[in-house]
Design goal:
Elements (H helix, E strand, L loop, with lengths): L1 H21 L10 E7 L3 E2 L9 E6 L3 E3 L2 E4 L4 E10 L9 E9 L7 E2 L2 E4 L4 H11 L18 E2 L5 E5 L5
Antiparallel strand pairs: 1-3, 1-11, 2-10, 3-6, 4-5, 6-7, 7-9, 8-11
């Protein structure tokens, strides 16, 4: 019984190793081309935005890959708002996370990158005050009313997405 189980496991592991060995792929190919983007309209956590919302961006510069024009300046791209973190107590800021970038003429599976924009954090100022006021009953809790800043993605913010030409 043990021999049969051992033979089955050996065949299983041999097949896995053989499958990986047969893949014709260079796992060390880390060469990438940066694609610089900007949003067309300002996005803020003060506005009515939602997770999954598609936003429009444009390419800032001409992008060259292997000395050929790959993406023209002004090409429209899209991204999705992946996560919205609302501002919180004690000075914690709001955040917007963009992902799932799509650019005309570029395979999405070759793109990698996410963009995170956070508002102003007041936490480093609020917590020492909170700790100093904590011995006085209920006064330390007043710092809970201090909220962090809103996250704003402005039209001049630089968003960089990496294009990996050797990926499949």
């Amino acid at each position: 019984m043990n021999r049969i189980l051992f033979l089955i496991l050996m065949v299983f592991f041999f097949n896995i190793n053989q499958t990986f060995a047969e893949l014709d792929y260079n796992y060390k190919a880390t060469e990438y081309v940066p694609i610089k983007l900007t949003v067309l309209n300002e996005i803020s956590t003060r506005d009515e935005i939602f997770e999954g919302q598609e936003i429009k961006l444009k390419v800032r510069n001409n992008v060259y890959c292997h000395d050929c024009l790959f993406v023209k300046k002004g090409t429209i791209a899209t991204a999705r708002i992946e996560t919205i973190i609302t501002k919180g107590m004690n000075g914690f800021p709001a955040e917007i996370i963009l992902n799932n970038f799509k650019i005309d003429g570029v395979e999405s599976s070759h793109l990698m990158g996410e963009y995170i924009k956070a508002g102003r954090s007041w936490a480093l100022m609020v917590y020492p005050i909170k700790w100093a006021l904590t011995p006085i009953p209920f006064v330390g809790s007043l710092t809970n009313l201090i909220k962090g800043g809103d996250a704003n993605i402005e039209t001049d913010d630089l968003i960089i997405v990496k294009y990996y030409p050797h990926w499949r």
